[in-house]
Structure formats: structure tokens, C-alpha cells
Write the C-alpha cells for this entry.
Amino acid sequence: MERHILCNKQPILDDKQKLFSYSYTLEAIGAHDLPPAVWEDEARDLFAELDRTIGLDNLAGKHKCFYRVPNCLLKPETLPNLSDQKKLVIEIDIDILGDKEALTHLKTLRAEGLQLCLRDYKPDEAHDKLLKIVQFVKLNYTVLGDALIEQYRRLQDSHTVIVTHVQDEAQFHALKEQGVKLFQGFYFVNPVTTADKELSANEAAMLQLLAKINSDDTDFEELAKIIRTDVALSHHLLTAINHPSNDLPYHVESIEDAVKLMGLKRLKFWVTMMIMSRAENTPTELLTTALVRGKFMELLAENSEHKREKDSFFLVGLFSTLNAFFHLPMVDLVERLPLAEPLKKALTDLEGDMGRALRIVRDLERGSTDWQSLQFENQDIMTISAHYMTANGWAQQILQNLS
């Protein structure tokens, strides 16, 4: 069966780079003007798939869930089922004014306690009319440009305002200095980098440790020694491994127990992840993104002819945000890591199959709807979407274990 829609997600962070919410979007891929019946059938299939894997409830967690779909899906019976439907914030566009049926459904949803968000606001009569019924407003940075701050200040007293399409760290800091409080996008994976930056002592030690742990020459004995010499790391590792969600057959009390249960590769992953979580002045969402990329790329490999390379695919995804952790160009970082040449080329130049998989997940983060750029072998768009949502759910579970 041909699939046409993709479920996508972007984080919304506050000015301290803590997670405020996620924004979910259902978009048509490789097809336009889909009939409402097709949208409804495929949306139902997609949410059923999510429920079988992780569920939108777990993806959203305790946060609000911003939800953007075509007007035909704004009926109460076609909304995703959350344990608390009031966590849903329905996003609307200016074209809602021409759809009487959708406006009627919105009235019902508002009466049930759901909140509304007006996206891509512009200062005109039609948008101002919609301001009366919404609690949130999204301002598109790429559309409003220099006029954005004026509109932000005009609206911030009456609405919760979110600036979208923030592309990089420099834009984030410039907007923050102007008083902006909420930002949407993956700007934090596009850092301001400089080749002549001096690493702090902690950063240098962290990078050296990542290199040591992920070296093929590091066996169990050496890894165990590394862990034991860091009391905090050892305690954190055993606490995370014994998290109830892992459903272990017995309580792990030592590093020896851990390696017997998990194996060397899996244990290296956990230690790597915990070291990355210690990075200074970086948002938790950066680690989330690294985990999502790693798992998504692993799933692509597992469902293709690259099954034997799935560990390498995962590592490329996990390390693809290191430039943002260290504020160094990726080309400088990979030279300090014991990676095979194909992995280095994937990270620096997006070359090879691993590079193509990394490009796909980055395109998904940016909200791409170009099906040609999202294809990986014979996996259809619903499969790609399911991989991405599964990876997001897995990352959330891992982070719960960490905390």
C-alpha cells in the first residue's frame, strides 16, 4: 500500500534551553491535495502504528503536545488519543477562516478544554481576527525578519509567543538578547564553531575518554578500569541499568554483572552516553537528538542490506552532534576519535550510505517533505516515519533511565 503522510516533530525550548514542548506535524510526502478520506485513513494507521511502538503519550511525556494537521483532521474523532487530551495544543493557519466545518470543530475542541496556537502570524486584519481565539502564537523568523521583535513585544502580554525557524546558535543568542523566551527548531545542533578554540580541561578529558572507550583496542578489563576510577560514573551507570523499565532478570551490582548482562558493545554505548550527558552548557535536547539520530540510523540499517553495519550506523548518528557539544568543526573532532574512514567521511562530508542515512534524519529534523531526499532503499515513507517516531520514543526512555 502506498503511503503519503509523514509524522514529524520539532522541539520547543525556553531561553535556558530547557524543553518546553514538542511540536508534531502530519505532512503529505510526494503527493498534494490528498482527499480527506485518504488523510483520515492514513492518520489512523499512523497513530495505530505509534500506539503499537511507543505512543504519542510517551513521546509527549509531561509536556504539552503542539499538533499541526490539515483542517480535515481537526475533528474530535480523528485526534490522537492522549491520557490527557488537554495536553494537545491545536495549531491553525490563516486558511482556517475559509473552512466553516473546521471552525465548527474548533469550537467543540475549545469547549473540551483544548488550547489553540496560530502559526506564521502576520500583522494584518485576518490574523488579528484569529488572535481572539488562540492562546499561543508562532512567529516565523525567516518570514518576519527584522519586524519580528516588534510583533513579539506587541503580542507577548496577551499570548504565549514562540519564535520558529531558528536556524543556528547565533540566531538563538541574538533573539534571546531581545527578550524572546521560546524557540522552535534544531538551532542547537548548528553551533558557532571556531577551529582555534581552546578546549576546557573538562572538555579535553571528555573527548579523550570518548576516544578511549570507543577504541576497538579497549576490552572489558580496560573499560571496567575506566568506570571504576570514576565513582560518580560507576554509580550512575548501575543506577540507570537497574531502572525498572529495563525489566532485568536480576539486580546488577557490579561492572562485571553489567558486562555479562549487556555485552561489551552495549556497555560502551551506555558509558559513552553518560559521558556526553555531562557536557557543560548544552541542552538536554542535544543529547536527545544524538540518541534519536543513532537509533534512527540503526533502524534504517537493520531493515536494509546494511544490517551487519548497524553498530556503525548507530555510532555515526550518536557522534553527529559532537560539534555542538564541543563547539569545534566536525572535521577537527573526528581526527581525535578512533573511527574508520567511512565513519569519518559520513560525519564530515555525508558520504556513503551512512552519510546518506545521516542526511535523511537531518532533513526530517528540518521538516523536509521531499520524498526523493528521504528515501533509503525500499523503505516507504510510513516505514521511515515509524523509524523516526520509534527512535524518538526510545531516546525518551533512555533519558528517563538516565535521570
